[in-house]
Specification:
- The protein is mainly beta.
- It has 3 domains: 154 residues, Jelly Rolls; 215 residues, TIM Barrel (Alpha-Beta Barrel); 98 residues, Immunoglobulin-like, CATH 2.60.40.10.
- It has a 15-stranded mixed beta sheet that branches.
- It is built from 5 helices and 28 strands.
């Protein structure tokens, strides 16, 4: 109760300060599934010309999953500069622990979610109550400045609280045809912003018996199973583990041998993924029969992609009813290459081998252009039922499917959001901050691709699956 009294007193003091320095008003607007309101404030120029701080109270309701704050004002060609920060409920005293971030004079919206946030802000739970927007009056002309502050909140939380981890799933060291030692590769991956890596040298796991750093990135023991008729990655072996590769597609018992190879990977707790199925290097393209229990397909290999033939290959598997994850990799060999282009984001409740493999197995994966790209928030709902990438949602006749795409940071780069239904492009829109796709429900699956206006892919999600609800 003492903390509540402090917050209340502080809030009243700031409201009085707002009254002294300008006008405060509020109106509600409709933005579809997320309630939004606009707060109008006006401030006079600081009398001494030195930057001063003001605070605008923002009410955040219970069960909020995402908070977005946009601030619009006339900058007069640089004559007006306002800098912003954000505090969650709590005292606004010097050194308080309730500070959530500071973006300065960046004009992009502030977006804070459970697992992602705009640059300069801290993701995490969003406690209900009175938050405060910090308004720094850095440069204000003599006649003052008027601000339109739009606040949007979205209900949640989503199931399985966790976060998106950036990872590289196809990396080579000097133990096969890579140029870097294990230690140098891990150092480079850390600098690139990768949270985890799977080292996948050809047909061996010798890197795993060396002493490796314990700090990030998390290292998952892998192997590129390099057969004469196609390559595959195995992720999650024990140190010293090994998966055989000695099978040709033209052998009489090739299909049986390959099933045994996949079974050996699964028996060790690892996952099996087909690599670059249409690569042109000798022996790289996949010519084997496709085992029924593979876990993933590499649809984006290297800096330029995704490869459309590989996307179509993966889509045919999903269309046939298989839950197979799409992944993207850099296939890193040389220091001249970018270790994170392409990469993945995997949703997991913690950064561990088991949690990352579970996320891959469940299809909670986004294929990303790079580890530096801010992944979008993509959620789906049918009525009151909400889901995230990889989830199954159930419908009744007459229900509508909604897929919401939210940018977590504004950039100069303009994006397009494309909706694919059962593997076919059915809708495409320019994405400023957020958009909601709607379509009638039927059995099928949906995924989202984000591109630049020139067509370069930034992100490609794995599917949401939609099935008819059984009779209650």
């Amino acid at each position: 109760m003492n903390g509540l009294r402090v917050v209340t007193r502080t809030a009243l003091l700031f409201l009085l300060a707002l009254a002294l320095h300008g006008l405060l008003s509020e109106r509600h607007v409709s933005t579809g599934s997320a309630p939004s309101r606009v707060i109008h404030v006006r401030y006079d120029a600081p009398a001494d010309g030195i930057e001063q701080y003001r605070y605008v109270p923002i009410d955040v309701p219970p069960a909020t999953d995402t908070l977005k704050v946009s601030c619009r004002y006339d900058d007069g060609g640089g004559e007006t500069v306002v800098q912003l920060g954000l505090f969650e409920p709590g005292p606004l005293e010097l050194g308080g622990s309730n500070f959530r971030g500071y973006g300065g004079n960046h004009r992009e919206p502030i977006v804070i979610g459970q697992t992602q946030a705009s640059l300069g802000y801290r993701a995490g739970p969003l406690p209900s109550g009175q938050w405060h927007l910090l308004v720094g009056l850095h440069k204000v002309p003599f006649d003052g400045v008027a601000l339109d502050i739009e606040v949007t909140t979205r209900a949640g939380p989503l199931p399985n609280p966790g976060r998106w981890y950036a990872g590289g799933l196809h990396l080579h060291t000097v133990h096969s045809d890579g140029a870097l030692t294990t230690a140098d590769l891990l150092s480079r991956a850390s600098r690139a912003g990768l949270d985890f890596v799977a080292i996948t040298d050809h047909n061996n796991t010798a890197h795993a018996v060396q002493s490796m750093p314990t700090a990030r990135p998390l290292t998952i023991v892998g192997e590129e199973v390099t057969t004469p008729s196609g390559h595959a990655n195995v992720w999650g072996l024990e140190p010293g583990g090994w998966i055989d590769f000695r099978v040709r597609a033209d052998e009489q018992d090739a299909a049986d041998k390959l099933r045994r190879i996949v079974s050996a990977a699964h028996s060790s707790g690892a996952l099996f993924s087909i690599n670059h199925p249409f690569a042109t290097c000798d022996g790289c393209a996949w010519r084997h029969a496709i085992p029924s229990d593979i876990d993933a397909v590499e649809i984006w290999n290297g800096a330029t992609g995704p490869q459309e033939s590989a996307v179509a290959f993966w889509n045919r598997l999903v269309e046939s009813g298989r839950r197979v994850a799409a992944v993207g990799t850099s296939d890193f060999h040389s220091p001249q290459d970018d270790i994170d282009r392409a990469s993945v984001r995997v949703y997991a409740d913690r950064l561990s081998k088991e949690a990352i493999l579970d996320g891959l197995r469940a299809g909670r994966v986004m294929v990303m252009r790079s580890a530096h790209d801010m992944p979008p928030l993509v959620t789906a709902s049918i009525g009151a039922e909400q889901g995230m990438i990889g989830d199954s949602l159930r419908y009744r006749p007459g229900d509508a499917l909604q897929i919401e795409v939210l940018r977590t940071r504004d950039l100069n780069e303009i994006w397009r959001a494309e909706l694919f239904w059962n593997g076919r492009l059915v809708d495409s829109r320019q994405l400023a901050d957020a958009t909601v796709f709607q379509r009638p429900t039927e059995d099928g699956y949906a995924w989202i691709r984000l591109t630049t206006l020139s067509g370069e892919t930034i992100a490609l999600t794995n599917p949401f699956y939609v099935t008819k609800r059984a009779r209650d």
